[in-house]
Amino acid sequence: MAQAASKTCEICVSSPGHNYCEQCDQLFCDGCKISHLRTKMSKNHTFLSGPNIIPEVKLYCKEHDENFIYYCIECDTPVCKICAIKNHRKHDLSEIKESLEGINAEGKTDIETKIRKLQSKIAEIDQGTHAYQADVKEVIQAIREEGKGLKEMIDKKVEGLINTVKEKDTKNVQTLQSFGEEIKIALDNAKEQQKFYQDTQGIKDTTKILQKLKQIKSQIDQIEETKVPIMPSIKYDKKKAEESEIEKLFGELTFRENVKIEANLKPRKNVRVTTTAKQYRYRCAQCRTEIISE
């Protein structure tokens, strides 16, 4: 029965076997390859060279120099007629061409099924990505609109406070100006009586001076001294807004993170390990228990 080729030279069994002889089905190191090609019987042999060469699977048994005609289902390997008698007598065998056709069809189906599933998953991811990105744009727009609305409310409040200050300022200034005008009138009257008083200082007639001074005193007494009003005042106590208070004005973001879903492993089929004339013996792939079936 054919054996798997080693990565060591099969001639000297010491150097790396990077050269595969297609006629001998053996791996050679560089030195043994040169010697092999110098031999008269093998000088025309062809080689595949490289560190990652994959030897071609031959359809004959190297151990018995016989063609493979059966396929052992239990050992999952092709066998010749001698191998079938010596090593696989009680194993379930099938013709190699029939097995090859079945494996080939199964491989094709598995590949196509796998491709369809993977393409479906890619399409699902693409669709989910597009939907997620659309949600992201919608959320960003909602945040901006909410922020814009809060800004408008703040601007409106600012304008309202400023207008209140201006209105109060206008009213208080007008009141102060009114008080100032009244006091100015009283001041003018007082200055006028001061001038009259100064004029009396040149009069020689005592009786006339006395009469004038009485009149001036009477006028001065009639001038009302308007009291200075209590001055208006204004101040603004700023409120320090905490970040937590600002956050309460906005909505809440929620995220669902990506979660990798582990693929379910396919359960392995029970392996038929022995056949008799009327019975089949199976081994369970999970618990390794043998089952006798008619």
Helices and strands in order, then pairings?
Layout: E1 19-21, E2 26-28, H1 30-38, E3 47-49, E4 60-61, E5 66-67, E6 70-72, E7 77-79, H2 81-86, E8 93-95, H3 96-200, H4 206-222, H5 243-247, E9 271-275, E10 280-283, E11 290-293
Antiparallel strand pairs: 1-2, 1-3, 4-5, 6-7, 6-8, 9-10, 10-11
Number of strands: 11
Share in β-strands = 5-15%
Shape: rod-shaped
- With strands numbered from the N-terminus, the spatial order across the biggest sheet is 2-1-3
Radius of gyration: 56 Å
How far apart the termini lie comes to 31 Å
Count of DSSP H/I helices: 5
- Main sheet? 3 strands, antiparallel
Helix/strand-derived category reads mainly alpha
Q: Give the rounded overall mean pLDDT.
A: 82
Helix fraction, binned, reads: 40-55%
Low-confidence stretches: 1-5, 267-283
Elements, N to C (H/E): EEHEEEEEHEHHHEEE
What would you say this structure looks like, in words?
This protein is mostly helical. It is 48% helix and 12% strand. A hairpin with a 4-residue loop joins β4 (60-61) and β5. The longest helix is centred in the middle third of the chain and has 105 residues, at 96-200. The protein is rod-shaped and about 170 Å long. Mean pLDDT is 82; it is low at 1-5 and 267-283.
